[in-house]
Amino acid sequence: MEQREIILKIKENFSKSEVKVFDEKQFSVFADKDDIVRILSFMQMIGFQQLAIISAVDWIDEKKFELVYNLFSYTHIQQVLVKTKIERDNPKIQSVMNLWEVAQMYERDVHEFFGIEFSGNDDMRPLILHNWKDKPPMRKDFDSLKYSNEIYGTFKKSEEV
Amino acid sequence: MVNIMLRFLFAAFTSIIMGLLFMGIGRKFIARIRRHYAGPFYQSFIDVIKLFSKKSISHNWIMDFGVMMGFAGIIATIIFMPIGPFNVFSQMQGNIIIIIYFMTIGYLGMAMGVAASGNPNATIGIARALTLMLGYEIPFVLTVILLVFANNSSLLQVMVVNQQGGFMEWNAIRYPFAFLAALIALQGMLGEQPFDAMIAPSEIASGPMVELSGKFLGFGFLQHAAQIFLETGIIVNMFLGGSQNFFIFFAKQLALYLLTVAVSGIFPRYRFEDAVKFFWMAPTALAAIQLIIFII
Amino acid sequence: MNYKKKSLLGPLSSLKYLFHDPITVRYPKEQKKTYPEHEGCSPQYRGQHTNDLEKCVGCGSCMDICPTGAIEMVEFNDVKDKPGATRKRPVIDYGRCCFCGFCVDVCTSSSLSMSREYIHTFITPLNADSRDAGDLISNDFVRRPDLSLTENPGWNTPDEWSWLSLDRMVMGVMEPKERKTSFVEMVRGYSKEEAVREAQRCVACGLCKEACPIHMDIPEYIDAIWKDDIEESVKQIYKTNPLPEVCGRVCTHKCETACSIGLRGDPLAIRWLKRYAVDSLPLEKYKSVLLNNAIKPVNKRVAVIGGGPAGLSAAFFLSLMGYKITIFEADEKVGGIMRYGIPAYRLPDSALDKDIDFIKSLGVEIKTNTRVGKEIEFNKIKSEYDAVILSTGFNLGRSTRIPGSQSKGVVQALDFLSDTRDFAAKKIKEVEITEKILVIGGGNVAFDCSRSAARLQMMKFGKVNVTQICLETLDIIPADKAEVDESAEEGVVLICGRGPKQVMIDENGKVKGLDHMKCNSVFDENMNFNPKFNEEDKAICEATMIIEAIGQAPDYSYISDDVKSKMKFERGKIVLDKNNETGAEKIYAAGDIVKGPDIVNAIADGLRSAIALDKKLNK
Amino acid sequence: MSEILTFMGMEDQYKKYELFFGPNHPGMHGNFSYIITVEGHTIKKIDPDAGLLHRGFEKLVEQRLWMQNISLIPRICVPEPDINEAIYSIAVEKLMGVEVPERAQYIRTIILEMARIGAFLFGFGGIGGATGLYTASYWTFADRDYLLDLFEWLTGARIYHMFILPGGVRRDIPNGWLEKLSETVDYLQKRLYEYDRLIYNNPLIVKRLENLGPVTQEDAMKYGITGPNIRATGIKYDTRKAVPYAAYDKIDFEVPVQTAGDGLARAVQKREEFQVSLDIIKKAIQQMPEGSVRAKMPNPLKFRVPKGDVYVKLETAHGEHAYYIVSNGSDKPYRMAVRGGSFTAGLVYAQKALVGMRIEDVALWMATMDICPPDFDR
Amino acid sequence: MLLTSTNEIKDNGMERILNFFRKKSLWMLHYCTGCGAVELPPTMTSRWDMERFGMGPMATPRQADLLLITGYLSVKSLKRVIYTYEQMQEPKWVIAFGSCPINGGIYYDSYSVINRLALYMPVDLSIEGCMPRPEAIIDGFTKLMKAIEKGEAVGYKKYRENYEWYKANQRNVLERTSAVLKEEA
Description:
heteropentamer; B: mainly alpha; C: Alpha-Beta Plaits; five-stranded parallel beta sheet
């Protein structure tokens, strides 16, 4: 399928979603957060086999988290970014690990770094960080330099060398 | 008595020193295949001295005992092997059956020692080593049986005497298939690739040695050195005509050792059950064929 | 190739290397020999840093680009002061350095480079108390770049590969043909895109700030322009400069001479950027942008005599401090040299008025057509006001005093320029010119004269015949290079290195030409102005009108004698004491009469006198 | 004696036990750990424990200027660092709409292919190390060093070159470099046949690799296994062909595929791609155009990227490495998410594939799947 | 604790003789903690061949004399490295590679990477560079050998004597119970 046809199909089924074309091999779909599982399973059905990555963006000024599901199709050679925004205060969204098994690890990762809850995904043990007590580090209001200086210390540079 | 003690000490020291020397030369040799230089040939001596200078950790007395037993087992076996013209007990002259029996003591001691350390990697390693032993003992014993029949004696000395008079008389020429089987078994005995599944660093982190430190590793090193000397010595006596000259004897051993090193340099390791299967197939078949030829 | 083909012989072939030499590089004994002409590491290896301390200007770009924060600028005691440079030099923390070489690629002075030396190991000292192990060993890795490593050069960055944008954004200027027919402003100014692109060239080194007489926050306002935040930019500009429209056009831009980008390429067009910033913000918005804090009034009155740049500057800053200001201006409008000295094609009235209108809007009272000493007595002012600032400037033309210079066809530059200005403003119908004009002088004013004359000739006769003669040779000419080039484009003929001898006058008493001679040297050993001429080498230049533009002089006739006697003068300028006071009570001085003619200096001086005054009055 | 009896009876106790495979384990590639539950010699459960190499790149790039990041990101994937610079540069160029000069494209292609060959050599050595054929590792690591020599000559550093920048490359090629490169390529070609004899025709290696963790096409797509490993299952997809970048659209090359998808197919696939990379370099040297190597770019201290987001993925030796970059129009990236080429294979697919395997095959499986911990720890 | 043998180090004379053998046979632990590990394979293998100095990789900490911290250490790795270091038998030495263990290197502002290794374990030798080239590594090794021969490389003794201090530092990083950055109201 051409990119145009895919977009038409998405528009047909999900009229509320906004589509933005980046170039002939890549486009993004912005969907409502309640639609996300439906749209992703629809995408899987029309031939987007690979879930390349799930990532999140912290739009702190808007008080929103943006979740980006990155899909790829070997049949259409198309890269799709399916995006949705959720509230920053109580970040919660449906898990998609039933569609792709790899989503489990990506969601665990996003949970660890952004503190987003995925309902339906139970294994949320910390994977990367050791004994983490602060707020999730990838949030924009977490100051990494301050943290580092506080706990790991740094040399004071001498004035005259 | 003192005389025997001195002779015993001589045998033990010769085996350790020559073994360490062989190891050093072997490292230089394999480095050549790998296109580099490696350390000096006396590197193994430095390593051993260093290991004995280190602090070592013992988990319990069983570990101490096991490691010592492994070392002592190999050294004790040396007693029965003719080193060129030299024999610790002139009347025993190296009964091959006893040698095979004693050699297992070394492994058992090692097994006891490292199992006491409680590291699962070591346990897996020693289990593999013992299984592998089952593998290479079969073809080796077959070749031994062949030679015992051929010489009507189980004494290595007798075998050596029977091979005098030019290399055409060597058992290696007379019984080439058996010799091949014995070489493959030797590869397994020395634990070189492709039969090094028991120490395999990338699988079980060097297996039995995983918990050995300092002195214990030093003893392990010495045991390995003595083992190289012993096992190459047995094959030299059995197939390559031994020698009445120390230097020729050592040279034959070294040649044999370098052969195993060269093979280990160009082959990866077998899975250990594949290795056992292989031992029961190829070398056993070779030895059996030789035996059948001999019987016919 | 069939990979299922198993062959025992395949691996065995590897045994051939038993008979080959190993490929090992036995390092401490031998080095690898891969590169032509170099043993060891590569000819452009990124090893430890080395820095030419003399060449370095301490701009700090290396510190800004360093991704690891490894570079810190530290003041070096053994570095000599030099103009356009600070005494700070980079010190590198090898506990952070990642050897990316970005510092070298952005180095503005091409002094920083990397060597091929890479070995540095240090053993933690035995006696170091483990409690502060870190600090004790820090000296082992926080180091100055090693100067001896220059003998082993590695990564360095010629201009070609520099990351800096070395080419200036070209400024739209009218074509010579077009511009010489009118007095319309010839520099078009930057568009938004152009300004942003020019502003991004800045590395924010701050050397310009040092060079600028008023120490404007140049990096800050350029940064604001880059961020497209005009209001912030204007705010930054007005912190120190009350006449940005003027400065954005006719400043002598010492900042651009100091600009560190200029070491490798074209300096930033700081002046044009300033002009862009203030041009883009309409006057109506000034108040809301600039006057955030209410001015706390001080119940004191200050008189400013002379509405030139210094006077306006002093008035601006004093009124921000809350003083009540009155400016006494002899002419019809304030502006002084800015209005009557600078031709309209460089500084149009609209721009000047914008600046002045804003100052007026602060509540400054301006009394025009009030010449002190004529319309009002100096002593009256002195008694009525709490303080008086003199900023009358250099308002008299200086004559060459050669024979014939008093004749009718010889005019003074300021008179000529002021007439021209009036003509451009359509106040008078015509300026008296002839077909052959000769201008004497090599400063900016002289060029203003010759270019104005060229325009007038073009408008009147349709062709240009202006010759300019100056003492200095081209390399030491005091005027801007742009002036020289542009005047040549407009058809002005420049004769360098010759001094006037006498004005030739014909039988009717009209000017016929100028007799000039070669000038051997302009300055003596002490760098004082003391020209030496070669009288033998003579030539005659024909002209029917001569404009003298060799400098200006002050006029102190309005000051009452009792005040004058308390003040000190040297070479025509007023000498101030260490508190920036003149010596006479209540009398302060600013501008050309203190510093010599220059608009930026005058503005700076206005601020300085305002501060001195405030200090005294608010004690 | 009780100790010995305990040992004899240990079979029960050790019937099912946990084994820490890594981080301090010679078979582990990099600093990473699998907690393996073993029954006998067979793996029953596998639990990856990542994060030992975590540096927080995604946070660090948000704290640095766009250009400063060039020196930071190569460290994400250590064996093949150039790919990171290339992805980042391409993403920035796409967002800014910058056209890269053709010569720079060719230089990029050569650098990327050299890095790829370096990573393949690492991979061959890894197979050698995992199977005990140390001669292979000694050879390949030493031969890789000749490529590093060339890198050092061109870029001034051995490992982290920081040579590919937004807008082109940092320097032009020095005199004599291309000749030396052709020499090295010829040498590697000669050596490749020796590797064939030592590794790929070695009956024992074939025996070890055959039927090692076969991957089906469906699994490969679903689990996000990419690069040579997906081509080893028979899917003919190569990012260099499908979504060309650098000068790959101007260079003619074939994409090899295998069908079996097992360890041998994966290893052989990498060997074939090694050959393809050598060919690409040879062609790129021949076609190398003249011209400038860097488009005019803004001052690095005042470098801004227009608002927008882009996902760029490039082909590497261990799969597709990709960045998702979001810019809010300021002088620092707003967000950069890294998709390491082996994230899914090492963390998710391993949980499925390794179960039922024997412990001696874990290291070898990792070597053939090219599990690269730095790129999923980030 | 695993450090069982805390006997006093033997007198200097005997140690000096043994040091000769120790420096000639430094076995390093084959543990790649960071990106510096990428320069170790070339150093170990044919091109640079550190076996010439009697050095070789060892599979387990028990057998090794030398711990190489190859680059940065994340907190999670630090815990493993400390375990490993304590498992090693004396005498033992630590070499820190590159900028990162000295003062944080390029990760100076990372929340996950320690800045100063010297706070958590005794470092005998630091090699600068990012990454240190094989030549620099070999140079570092020879320098350490000289220091060992002179009896100057005694980091392990320092660790023993200041054990509590090191432990406190380690606990500060590894066993926190509360957040580091206080929540701003």
